[in-house]
């Protein structure tokens, strides 16, 4: 370990860290916003459900590097544009979260839905005040997986030169120098743990009603 | 008033769940649908608030057909209680209860105030208001379910086996409390049960359905016991019909003469007991003259202890039905049934022969009034 190197480069490393943070989080947020209506549709329509979830599962099997390289052709962006990474990771997050949202809505007890109908809830109010709040634990579990896996997929984008912590790996390899590689790994793990904890914390705050949850 | 006008329900395939049902559930009364499992009780009930659409026929609320109403508006007018309460897990007890009032446009503060009042009404302390449903027992959840249905002060209520998921002791309590509540509020209620005892105990009117969803009989509990329409109804009511009839009010009027009963207290010596005794058995009471049990004079060796008491006898509260009085006499080791006042104090005892005479008198009285 060369701490003097770390000290000298700390400004650039901090910048890469922030890039990594943004590239990990923004796609998950967009993915979730898209997954909510799609997951709701999937859960409601029986035939549509299997088709949609099947398609989402397929998306996830496309190698990330292939997606990074292909997207500029599809979107007409420049190859180095970070937008490619954002779109690619949004696709992954979406693929994962559609199923999560659909499973979350599926986890709401039928008794509760029936009671809500019988009291005279209309469909959308029922979704927003009954079903979605009860789906939070399942959706949060899926979000945690999406955030953590995004943190690791982002570093692959180093191969196309997008700024983020992955650049420390390529740099270390080129210079045959271990310090940036170790720093990159530690910061990636730290970032993943941080984001994971954040989702966990938010979910607990949103579900004070769960047995063993936050204090009432 | 809820009116079924030739209502039928056919499920896909050939299942006829309900077959041309016509009947009226009168205003302010508790009508019970009872019948064997699968006879279409739940289907009939859920057609009233259109959770299930009838295949043919119409249902009317106070003469107004339900099929043309906006379905959400219709449902908000009708309280609905189901077996496992169906409470919202993510809302506190008070918020759960307030739900129906909120749906009917009551402002939040007022809805929560109503919720707190109802909590007491259904026998829960206000300490429960901020708990979540999982922190409640099944019986408590069921009470909250009833309170939630009442919070919008609906004219009509539908209840599907509301008391069947709790143990028999709690069920009895919930039934008694609900009867008391209904006496105050006088809602137009249809309740479904498969339990004929519950139907006879709670119903102002009992509707017996048979498999295939056809009507077997509509009658008051007394009429049902006295004059079942056919073999199916007679079978369904069961063997103890004669004994059950004793549970109804007309029998309660024939008074049974009360005998004075000397009592001993705990700690009494065998000599004292023998002095008090009129036969082998002495009634033991506490310092407030509330009966504790019977002591067998021949087997008590030292000062009378709790463990010496025979507890087999049931107590009948003064003014209760002959069914309870008879049970008190039959279950008492001395053969004398113990009658207590409203606060549990001893009033006296009745003998089996006096009870039998009272039953006989009531029976001939009842037969005499028959056409
Ligand atoms: N959704 C359904 N699809 C098909 N058949 C049904 C459905 N719901 C109920 N049934 C049938 O209709 C009949 C009446 O059911 P139900 O009203 O639930 O009876 P109960 O409440 O008296 O036990 C039964 O034979 C049941 O199998
Ligand atoms: Mg049923």
Automatic annotation (TrEMBL), chain A:
Keywords: Membrane, Transmembrane, Transmembrane helix, Transport. Belongs to the binding-protein-dependent transport system permease family. InterPro entries: ABC_transp_perm/SBD, MetI-like, MetI-like_sf. One of its GO terms (cellular component) is plasma membrane. It is a multi-pass membrane protein. The keyword Membrane applies. This is ABC transporter permease subunit. One of its GO terms (biological process) is transmembrane transport. It is found in: Cell membrane. The keyword Transferase does not apply. The chain crosses the membrane at residues 16-40, 52-73, 79-98, 132-161, 181-203. CDD domains: TM_PBP2 (cd06261). Residues 17-200 form the ABC transmembrane type-1 domain.
């Amino acid at each position: 370990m060369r701490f003097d190197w770390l000290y000298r480069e700390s400004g650039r490393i901090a910048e890469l860290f922030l890039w990594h943070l943004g590239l990990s989080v923004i796609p998950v947020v967009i993915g979730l916003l898209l997954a909510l209506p799609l997951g709701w549709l999937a859960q409601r329509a029986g035939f549509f459900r299997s088709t949609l979830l099947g398609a989402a599962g397929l998306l996830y099997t496309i190698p990330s590097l292939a997606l990074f390289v292909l997207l500029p052709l599809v979107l007409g962006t420049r190859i180095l544009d970070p937008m490619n990474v954002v779109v690619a990771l949004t696709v992954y997050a979406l693929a994962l979260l559609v199923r999560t949202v659909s499973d979350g809505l599926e986890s709401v007890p039928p008794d509760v839905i029936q009671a809500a109908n019988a009291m005279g809830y209309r469909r959308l109010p029922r979704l927003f005040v009954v079903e979605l709040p009860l789906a939070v634990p399942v959706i949060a579990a899926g979000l945690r997986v999406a955030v953590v896996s995004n943190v690791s997929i982002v570093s692959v984008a180093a191969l196309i030169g997008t700024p983020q912590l992955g650049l420390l790996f390529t740099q270390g390899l080129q210079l045959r120098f271990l310090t940036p590689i170790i720093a990159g790994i530690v910061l990636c793990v730290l970032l993943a743990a941080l984001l994971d904890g954040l989702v966990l914390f938010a979910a607990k705050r949103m579900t004070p009603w769960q047995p063993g949850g936050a204090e009432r | 008033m809820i009116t079924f006008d030739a209502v039928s329900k056919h499920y896909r395939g050939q299942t006829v769940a309900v077959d041309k049902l016509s009947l009226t559930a009168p205003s302010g009364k508790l009508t019970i649908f009872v019948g064997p499992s699968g006879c279409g009780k739940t289907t009939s009930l859920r057609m009233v608030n259109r959770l299930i659409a009838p295949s043919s026929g119409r249902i009317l609320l106070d003469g107004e057909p339900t099929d043309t109403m906006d379905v959400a508006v219709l449902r908000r007018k009708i309280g609905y209680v189901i077996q496992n309460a169906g409470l919202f897990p993510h809302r506190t007890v008070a918020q759960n209860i307030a739900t129906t009032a909120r749906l009917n446009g009551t402002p939040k503060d007022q809805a929560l105030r109503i919720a707190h009042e109802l909590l007491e009404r259904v026998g829960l302390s206000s300490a429960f208001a901020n708990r979540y449903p999982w922190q409640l027992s099944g019986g408590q959840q069921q009470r909250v379910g009833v309170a939630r249905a009442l919070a919008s002060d609906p004219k009509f209520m539908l209840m599907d086996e509301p008391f069947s998921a709790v143990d028999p002791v709690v069920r009895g309590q919930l039934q008694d409390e609900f009867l008391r509540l209904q006496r105050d509020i006088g809602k137009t209620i249809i309740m479904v049960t498969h339990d004929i005892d519950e139907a006879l105990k709670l119903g102002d009117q009992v509707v017996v359905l048979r498999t295939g969803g056809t009507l077997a009989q509509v009658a008051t509990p007394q009429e049902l016991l006295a004059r079942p329409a056919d073999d199916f109804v007679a079978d369904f009511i069961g063997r103890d019909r004669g004994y059950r009839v004793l549970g109804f009010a007309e029998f309660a009027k024939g008074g049974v003469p009360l005998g004075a009963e000397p009592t001993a207290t705990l700690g009494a010596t065998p000599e004292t007991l023998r002095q008090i005794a009129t036969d082998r058995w002495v009634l033991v009471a506490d310092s407030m003259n509330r009966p504790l049990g019977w002591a067998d004079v021949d087997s008590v060796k030292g000062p009378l202890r709790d463990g010496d008491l025979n507890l087999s006898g049931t107590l009948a509260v003064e003014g209760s039905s002959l069914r309870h009085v008879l049970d008190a006499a039959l279950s008492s080791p001395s053969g004398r049934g113990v009658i207590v006042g409203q606060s549990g104090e001893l009033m006296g005892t009745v003998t089996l022969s006096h009870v039998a005479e009272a039953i006989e008198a009531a029976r001939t009285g009842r037969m005499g009034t028959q056409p």
